[in-house]
Amino acid sequence: MTKHNPYNFLPLQPTGRNETNTANTYAPEDMIKIYEQQFLIQVPEEELTEFLPALKAFYDIDNHTLDVSAIIFDAIAHSAIIYNHKIKVGDYQILGELIEEAIEYDEDNKSDESAESEEIQAYTLECQRTFFINDVEIPYHFNLFIYGDGYSTLTKRKLY
Fold it and tell me: Burial level of 129, CB count in 10 A (0-12/13-18/19+)?
């Protein structure tokens, strides 16, 4: 039986289910594809309120999956090195899987309403983006750390 697909969503293969079995999980590359479709698919104005629920239903995902997808997309799109040279930005690569991180909270700094009542999920993702500076190819390796609804990047250094 084929799924109802009025918006011609890309068929993607889930990697499994989340811990609470409420949504599918996807590879990071596919999460970006899911997120990009929100902007690439032309939707008539009268159907705008139906589009996002249709997207979530087609992929069997929840708001959390969309949030993480948006953070990955945003971080990769904005990871750049600033130089006073001619610079071109190349493609990005995701080099690993989305890895869930265990967050330890400092008991002394935790307020009553903070992390105890609401578990914040955190992930890391190994990435690479290629830059061309004065036509010299420079691969930039970084780890993307996703925490709640924000992110940070940490440059990876190779030890010789």
Answer: buried
